[in-house]
Amino acid sequence: MLEASHISVNYGPIKAVRDVSIDVGRGDVVALLGPNGAGKSSLLSSLVGLVPKNRGTVVFDNEEVSRASTEDLIRRGMSVTPEGRRIFGDLTVGENLRLGAAIRSDKDGIAEDTEKFLDLFPILRKRFNSAARYLSGGEQQMLAISRSLMSRPKLLMLDEPSLGLAPRIVDQIFEFLVTLRQWGLTLLIVEQNASEVLEIADRAYVLSTGSIVFSGTANELSNSGGVMELYLGLE
Ligand code: ATP
């Protein structure tokens, strides 16, 4: 579904992503792991056109989209839940969800999807007309993911969905990601929390200082003590 080849991202002299190629098959859950500053967010942002690539090509759904705008990519079925959630705190929960559907004009479909997320997360229904900043961190993450889903993506990319959340909430988020896979979504998940994401991923890539240092199945990575210890701080 997504084939990114030889992607490089530079910020002036800083080479954040160096000649990285990744493949995400339809229906797959793929983890993109690596330490702080490895270039994970830069790679994700470049895939959705939020930061420019210096080199590389992106093929999505069999079409080359290397130079497509973010809006065009969203229309084609990509969506991203950014790091730190980036919900609009002064807007209501309902307004945040509406913004996720900005590219759509099918009112009935939008209403149907809104109901779906309000059923899934009753707290969002309860707070529908309150400013989103009053939600807890976990609730904001549920809202952020729901908002990304309001564009009805085929591929959802999540940047550190577990960041800063209590373990119980992290479990809920990952349970929700398993539900998304059952709905047929393809997921690319950037995480520092390797052990949790490897439980739900099919395959994984490990980035370190801008380069891929491991690619393989989630099982292979879990059993590869050296990579786990060296790059992910796990034994
Ligand atoms: P983290 O988990 O901390 O977000 P990451 O793996 O996502 O790390 P990036 O945020 O992509 O890594 O950062 C990769 C490198 O690029 C780092 O050295 C970072 O300081 C640098 N960098 C990221 N964004 C910018 C920017 N807008 N301008 C300049 N340098 C940047």
TrEMBL record:
Record keywords: Amino-acid transport, ATP-binding, Nucleotide-binding, Transport
Domain ABC transporter stretches: 2-234
One example of a Gene Ontology biological process annotation: L-amino acid transport
ATP-binding in keyword set: yes
PROSITE patterns: ABC_TRANSPORTER_1, ABC_TRANSPORTER_2
GO molecular function: ATP binding; ATP hydrolysis activity; branched-chain amino acid transmembrane transporter activity
Gene3D superfamilies, A to Z: P-loop containing nucleotide triphosphate hydrolases (3.40.50.300)
Family from the record: Belongs to the ABC transporter superfamily.
Protein known as: ABC transporter ATP-binding protein
